[in-house]
Amino acid sequence: MKLNYIYIDSNPLDSLHLLQVLKHFSNINLKAKFTRAIHAKEYLNYNTVDFAIVSADLPVYNGFEFVNQLKDDIQIILLTKKPLDAIKSYDMGIMDCLLKPVTKDRFKNSIERLINRIECQKIIQKKKEYLVHFKCNYKSEKLEARSIRWIEAMGDYVKVVTKNKNYMVLSTMKSFLDKLPENQFIRIHKSYIVNLKKVINYTARNVNTDGEVLPLSRKQKEVFKENFINFQ
Fold this sequence. Notes:
Oligomer: single chain
Order of helices and strands: EHEHEHEHEHEEEEEHEEEEEH
CATH superfamily of the largest domain: Response regulator
CATH topology of the largest domain: Rossmann fold
């Protein structure tokens, strides 16, 4: 993963030092450098980056004020000469706060944390936006996977149950299960597939799915329990 970033610092000596440190990191790409926050803000109105390295000490308005004015969710690495700024940056949800002059090893730790956070956010976002495509009554439909409560076998069809509407889809249970996010949906019975996000609790024989009690077969019990525990 190669991340794009901007760098904002009005101190030429600090900038020179950090730019030398940044040359050791091939997985990040400097898109633009600024000495004033207002110019960086204008740049971000028309461009996107993964993160910004921002000095707390900036003319006109400081690094904290710049972060407060950001509209997009950009990860921030704050640079400062004041140790107490770390507390303020933590309260603001800033990803990391580094004391100047920044060392290569300290910046390496920060980048590793940053990459991990961005990857986690992308996974979460992907799960939220996972769409299931199918045909119902000769029409192409798409649903967010998270909106599905459960799927029920109905002869040659499956019934896809959501809060507001049910869909009758010509499909086998196995084929429809293959369309769904892996590990989020599990078969609990030959006639039922449940969304683990909707499971409230279960007993030896039943699964309470979004307030509806569905049968749990003896054959599927251990598989369901293992997946349910790992999904939490």
